[in-house]
Amino acid sequence: MRIAIPIYEGFDELDAIGPFEVFQNAADAGADCAVGLCTVGDSEPTRVTASHGLRVEPDGRLPTPEEPDAPALLVVPGGGWNDRSAAGAYAEYDAGVIPEAVAEHHAAGATVASVCTGGMLLAEAGVLDGRPAVTHRGALDDLRETDAVVREDRVVDDGDVVTAGGVTSGIDLALHLVEREFGASTASTVSDQMEYERR
Fold first, then answer.
1. Residue range(s) defining the domain that contains residue 70
2. pTM, full prediction
3. Which of 61, 121, 163, 178 is most buried by its number of CB atoms within 10 A?
4. How far is CA 174 from CA 94, 96, 112, in A?
């Protein structure tokens, strides 16, 4: 399973890096998955600056759904929504590039997931319409203004759309997906290795 985590200026570090580490550890434990950080669009920036100043070098750009290396799972991080930052999920919501890519991949059969206010990007993509979803508690009122059916659970699994609440819940989301796709034993191995108590 190919897993892509799109990053952008102002994304929250843990929203992306937490799930990345979970999926990479799952692969190291024998799960048939490969995870990478990518950018969305035609250009391939050599570095992206996250919300707390971490500079990250992406693996490349997100393939289109038609390309052979298109992901089966897309995990969209949040960041910069609640303070309406000039860089972050709020800016990406307005720009529309990531929501458009999410909609295209979902329509092509990919599972799409979000961490924290990445859920607002899924909402803008239209993939949460009429479906249960959660986001960071500071953005729940914003999510209620969309067509999503807002839940306040840590992780909400609706099959091909999976959402998680605030920042650290991305680790729970990733472990949930590892268990769903590769089994409880692999998820347990990863959580033990990371010394993480699942919620």
1. 2-193
2. 0.96
3. 163
4. 27, 25, 12
